[in-house]
Amino acid sequence: MQLSHKIPETPWRATGPWAVRPRMALPLVLGLAIFGFGEGLLVQSHWGATPWTVFAQGISRHVHISLGWSTALISVVVLLAWFPLRERPGFGTLANLIVIAYVLNLTTFVVAVPQGAALQTLYVVGAVAVIGVGSALYLTTGLGPGPRDGLMTGLHRRFHVSVVYVRLTLEVIVLCVGWLLGGTVGVGTAFFATTIGFSIGANLHLLDRMVRRVQQ
Q1: Which one in 40, 162, 176, 178 has a CA-CA gap of 20 to 30 Å to 188?
Q2: SS3 per residue for the chain
Q3: Domain edges within the chain
Q4: Which residues of the chain are modeled with pLDDT < 70?
């Protein structure tokens, strides 16, 4: 499996985080929707949640606030971490907060909880696969990543480290801290944390190859 270690250039890449054009609307919204669907699949598997949600659960228990407020608090802190990395929010940052949350809720309402380990495994593996696809699509629009992905891309640009290993490191750190704080961890959580970076890298590579082939 070949991996891309950078965000490739695409025909739908914006010239700036607020330079929204019709050609980039589809990859942005579609990518975010696919991402939200993947998040929903993982939740519905009942084998754990994403590391950031585990982290939010741990914070919630100690600060005595709801999971929703805990997630919002983490997002604000992560956005503040963008400033030393010179990462700027954009239209995609706002779209991230709206589209992913909506599709996540819709998925948990529509998609049934799987019966049996085989289907649960399919949900977990499928979640990692589709989140990788969604991430690759919306990150290449250049309209600004979500709070957590912005931290990933900011560290990638600042320290010239592969997005694969940056994402993997972030996921493992927040997973461990969340677990130590009392967040709920399952086999799906561990699988997501250790494979999502590779899923994103593989899909970025595939997308880059597709774009180059079309342009030839």
Answers
A1: 162
A2: CCCCCCCCCCCCCCCCCCCCCHHHHHHHHHHHHHHHHHHHHHHHHCCCCCHHHHHHHHHHHHHCCCHHHHHHHHHHHHHHCHHHHCCCCCHHHHHHHHHHHHHHHHHHHHCCCCCCHHHHHHHHHHHHHHHHHHHHHHHCCCCCCCHHHHHHHHHHHHHCCCHHHHHHHHHHHHHHHHHHCCCCCCHHHHHHHHHHHHHHHHHHHHHHHHHHHHHC
A3: 22-215
A4: 1, 67-68
